[in-house]
Specification:
Blueprint lengths: L13 H9 L15 H11 L1 E6 L5 H11 L3 E6 L5 H13 L6 E5 L3 H6 L20 H6 L1 E2 L2 E2 L2 E2 L5 E6 H6 L8 H14 L6 E2 L4 H10 L5 E4 L2 E4 L4 H15 L3 E2 L6 H9 L4 E5 L2 H8 L7 E4 L17 E4 L7 H12 L3 H7 L7 H4 L2 H4 L11 H10 L11 H6 L15 H18 L3 E2 L1
Parallel strand pairs: 1-2, 1-3, 8-11, 10-15
Antiparallel strand pairs: 3-14, 4-5, 6-14, 7-12, 7-13, 9-10
Helix pairs in contact: 2-13, 3-14, 9-10
């Protein structure tokens, strides 16, 4: 089964985001962990059985649901694809506002989770057993599901970043694989000079890629303390990214091609797009979408901002969370735990998912797996190392869904006009601050 990981989507209904930002959910207070302990409640719920509804678009969950039902014959799970990314978030918020039709479990990307948790639309699952999972997950995903002392979901997968590159192109032009971003810019110049139709990468402006790059550069532009928010898209990490990427834009060294478009797949296939700096979920997409690239592509660590450093960041990834309105939270947690930390993890890994669990990510079978598409390279060694090197301290905004929706109107202008990236980031900050203030946050 092939996974097409969902990128940080741009379009979103602003009215839905506004309703989500600070509106507390009016759901039931039922099925809270009892005084005797959440683990006992989960065990009792499994013995009692029942039906829960799971909203998720990730295809590897289909087999996990079947396996869970086979193991717990008194449990029925309705797996519903209510849309991908923002489509599902809109449907979920509408159900919450209506007070009916809310699922018991929902897939939420890491960047979207804070918006739901701050609105109290999803439950803190610490007492159900999540608080004991501290060493179960890799640092980046585990930090992403925690807010203000609570745990509002369990990591389902992760996206530690790496450099995917077309070895044939680099060999053809006698270019070494870049280990720093300065070397990356130099390689970009050589590729484009040798073939004016070829580029080291594509980039038409993407919020997820931009924040991941700032993250790796050590930036912490978003800081959140309850309803107090700080936005600084002129911090050192943001400046590092903007300076380097401005050079690539000024010299026309990146293809103005939208990712996931037909033109993008064509460029990856014919060598006119030579690299992707992207999450660990990408191998399956190359194998399915760029079949003619078999044997040509390889994976290397992300280029570094400082020579000899080992810094990475996350790009994409999702959690499973329990809406506060669910009336069967204990049983919902039992499934969520099974899918993200239990037997379901290996099932999903076998189907192509990149795990967020330390056990699987360090398994010899996983790490030493050879990928024929990548010339029998042991790709997971690179990706697992990246997961360990994710820079700590990153936070998303509690209204990141909205912020990403205005990226094209701010930072995106640098890709289609003479607006400098630093100015685009400043505009993004200004509009995000205004929005946060309007929603009742104290934003600096």
């Amino acid at each position: 089964m092939i996974i097409k990981h969902r990128r940080l989507l741009r379009a979103v209904a602003v009215s839905v985001v506004a309703a989500l930002a600070l509106a507390a959910c009016g759901g039931s207070d039922g099925d809270k962990p009892s005084a005797s302990g959440g683990a006992d409640d989960v065990k009792a719920a499994l013995e009692k059985g029942g039906t829960i509804t799971v909203w998720a678009w990730e295809p590897t969950l289909e087999q996990v649901v079947k396996d869970f039902e086979a193991e717990h014959t008194n449990v029925k799970i309705k797996l519903v694809n209510a849309g991908t990314g923002n489509d599902q978030y809109t449907a979920l918020q509408n159900a919450i506002k209506a007070g009916s039709g809310v699922p018991d479990v929902a897939q939420l990307e890491y960047y979207a989770l804070p918006q739901f948790s701050l609105a109290k639309s999803v439950a803190d699952v610490s007492a159900f057993g999540a608080s004991s999972l501290d060493k179960t997950f890799t640092p980046g995903p585990w930090a992403s599901v925690q807010q203000a002392g609570g745990i509002y979901g369990l990591p389902m997968d992760s996206g530690p970043m790496a450099l995917f590159y077309n070895k044939d192109v680099f060999d053809k032009y006698d270019i070494a694989v870049p280990t720093t971003w300065d070397e990356y810019v130099a390689a970009a110049r050589k590729i484009h000079k040798a073939d004016p139709k070829a580029y080291i990468a594509n980039d038409s402006g993407d919020a997820g890629f931009t924040t991941s790059m700032i993250w790796q550069a050590g930036g912490q532009p978003f800081k959140v303390d309850g309803e107090k928010v700080t936005i600084d898209l002129a911090d050192e990490g943001s400046k590092r990214f903007a300076g380097t990427w401005q050079t690539l834009l000024d010299e026309d060294l990146v293809a103005p091609v939208q990712s996931w478009s037909d033109e993008w797949y064509k460029g990856l296939a014919n060598g006119t797009i030579a690299t992707l700096t992207i999450g660990a979920w990408m191998p399956a997409n190359l194998e399915s979408g760029v079949a003619s690239g078999a044997g040509k592509w390889r994976v290397a660590p992300m280029p570094q901002w400082e020579s000899g450093a080992h810094a990475s960041s996350e790009n994409g990834g999702s959690s499973l969370a329990i809406p506060e309105a669910s009336k069967n939270k204990a049983l919902a947690y039992a499934f969520m735990d099974y899918a993200t930390a239990g037997k379901g993890v290996q099932t999903r890994v076998d189907a192509g998912a990149f795990p967020a669990t330390t056990k699987e990510i360090s398994s010899p079978d996983f790490v030493n797996k050879k990928f024929p598409y990548f010339g029998d390279q042991e790709v997971n060694k690179v990706l697992a190392a990246s997961a360990e090197d994710v820079v700590k301290g990153w936070s998303y905004l509690p209204f990141q869904v909205y912020a990403n929706s205005i990226f094209n109107d701010t930072v995106g202008k640098a890709y289609v006009s003479k607006t400098p990236l630093e100015q685009g980031l400043a505009d993004w900050q200004k509009k995000s601050v205004t929005y946060g203030d309007q929603q009742g946050f104290t934003v600096n």
